[in-house]
Design a protein that fits this description.
single chain, alpha+beta, Arc Repressor Mutant, subunit A, 11 strands, 18% strand
């Protein structure tokens, strides 16, 4: 196993849950890493104390030194406009990375705040780059993650510029369903990690519009809501409203990752 020389490295024994046994492992790191390569990841991963709801992971213009993986809970990213208003830019679930915005300028261009009690893994960028040079599948995977972020930004622009209000909300609910499936949960029943106010902000809608749409979706039999628990009764219709192909028609979900190591 390669040795990474740095005073920032922590001992494997200090980790409560290693990458080997983490349920989010296949979501944030590539398929095809062998045991010794995952052990290398274990060595550089640091775990912050749990974040309480409303506690920041980082803020705009904080110095960039790490990327983060949500292990449990959920995180909201946002920017503050010139007028001092908050604009939500994304919601991050377990297994998803954030903080990539800081790589280019070496400071964060947005803020990240916990939506619930949340645990994150911290990966120092200098150690991650060193490891990526030694483990080619990891280096390729990091490039794929950056490409995926660009793709998601493009999807958000399309969402906000072309779709009607009901299509925007349906798109978000279908996207969440897809992401929960990637985590081993049912596509048709999940708990919203964010508030309706955050949903309205993210989708560029009024709060009253979001509430009215949820009521309409219930009246039409698309879904039912109990506080933040969503039960989707007709996923195909919801996907059609969102302008999406049904999952059975897709050759690969946005959140699926192909194997990165060629078979011997």
């Amino acid at each position: 196993m390669p040795h990474i020389r740095s005073k920032n490295v922590i001992d494997l024994a200090q980790l409560k849950i290693s990458c080997q046994h983490c349920g989010a492992r296949q979501l944030c790191f590539p398929y095809g890493l062998d045991e010794s390569e995952v052990d290398c990841l274990d060595i550089i991963v640091k775990q912050n104390r749990p974040l309480n709801r409303g506690e920041h992971l980082f803020r705009t213009e904080d110095h960039f030194s790490c990327i983060y993986v949500v292990r449990s809970g959920a995180v909201k990213s946002y920017v503050t406009t010139e007028s001092g208003e908050e604009q939500v830019t994304g919601f991050h679930l377990s297994g998803e990375l954030l903080g990539l915005d800081g790589i280019y300028r070496e400071y964060h261009a947005c803020s990240a705040i916990a939506l619930d009690t949340t645990t994150v893994c911290k990966l120092p960028m200098d150690l991650l780059e060193e490891l990526a040079r030694r483990v080619p599948p990891l280096q390729h995977h990091l490039l794929c993650l950056m490409s995926k972020e660009i793709h998601r930004d493009e999807e958000i622009m399309q969402l906000l510029s072309k779709k009607l209000a009901d299509e925007r909300l349906a798109s978000l609910l279908c996207d969440l369903a897809d992401r929960f499936v990637a985590r081993g949960y049912a596509a048709t029943e999940y708990q919203l990690p964010m508030s309706r106010t955050d949903i309205a902000n993210y989708l560029g809608l009024a709060l009253e519009t979001v509430s009215r749409l949820f009521s309409r979706f219930q009246d039409e039999g698309l879904l039912s809501i109990d506080k933040k628990m969503i039960t989707i009764h007709d996923l195909a219709r919801l996907q059609k409203l969102a302008g999406m192909a049904s999952q059975s028609d897709n050759t690969m979900s946005l959140h699926e990752k192909p194997p990165l190591r060629a078979q011997d």
